[in-house]
Amino acid sequence: MKKVLFATTALVASAGIASAQGIEFSGYGEMGVVGGGNFNGGFAAGGVTQFHNDLMLKFSATTETDGGLTVGVSTEIQKAEGNANGAFAADNTAFFISGAFGTLTMGEIDGAVDKRLTENMGNPGTIGDDETIHAGYMGSYADGAYDNQILRYDYDFGAFGVSASVELDDTDTVDDGYAVAMSYDTEMGGIGLGFGLGYQSFETDGTYAPVGVLGVIPAGFESEIIAVDMTADFNNGFVAGIEYSAWNFDNGVVSQDIDHYALSAGYSFDAFSIGANWGQYDVDGIGDISGYGLAVAYDLGGGASIHAGYGDSEWDAVFGPDAGQETWSIGVAMSF
């Protein structure tokens, strides 16, 4: 799930500062220093050390109909670093209707697979998203392959949950994208376990890039993803997860397979939270593209915390020996 440039892991607000008649405001702010470096090309020069600041305000409103349905809307207003004063933009806008039948949500949201599967456990977040922008990270499956406007249905019964979603191709030139997924939570020996299984299909339109350093997949490829995951909460501050997904792209002449593997773990004690994750794309006929990320946070109280992160990527299979990138960040964040 979120994520994070793909589904951003920027620090999420947890409490509202104003609430009346179903209206709530929340948000976060952050400042610090980010940097890193590129090795052996592939991308434009990056990783220059620089100051970073960010501000996000989230607005949400809910109401209840006479028939007992809950209806709501939310959006995020964000101002990133830069010298364009006042350049705020709305993002992640969504509208939902919920009742005994389940919940129907439309907007810039997770698709069914990303809703039910968890790719990164125990992540306290960083101001530079170092732990989620490395080359091995996969945070949203094929969500956003078109216009990133998704309609999703969710229903939970006991320990089971099911979701189905669709993302339309606005150009009407390729097939629409569909996804279905389910999750199951249980406990065994005092350990909380979670399992997820999902399927997603779509047709490439010439703009979708499943692995960033490889560029876009040409238009006209019928594409399928099958994904599974397992998570564990040991109820002692330690959590862990494993994820696998198989991707296939086929236009009737050329077929391309990609396997993705991910491991993640986190540990919290006192005011500290530590998270780590590793991911790898095994691209048929090309090789491995991998990376890992680390995130550490210290809770100062009052919604403020110190965050530090590091990310490392390797794409030797694409650009030759020692090709890759590393990023780092350190700073202070405040949620409200």
Automatic annotation (TrEMBL):
InterPro entries: Gram_neg_porin_domain, Porin_dom_sf. Transmembrane segments: none annotated. One of its GO terms (cellular component) is membrane. It holds the Pfam family Porin_4. Residues 7-314 form the Porin domain. The keyword Chloroplast does not apply. Keywords: Signal. The keyword Cytoplasm does not apply. Residues 1-20 form the signal peptide. GO terms for molecular function: porin activity. This is Outer membrane protein OmpU. It comes from Rhodovulum bhavnagarense.
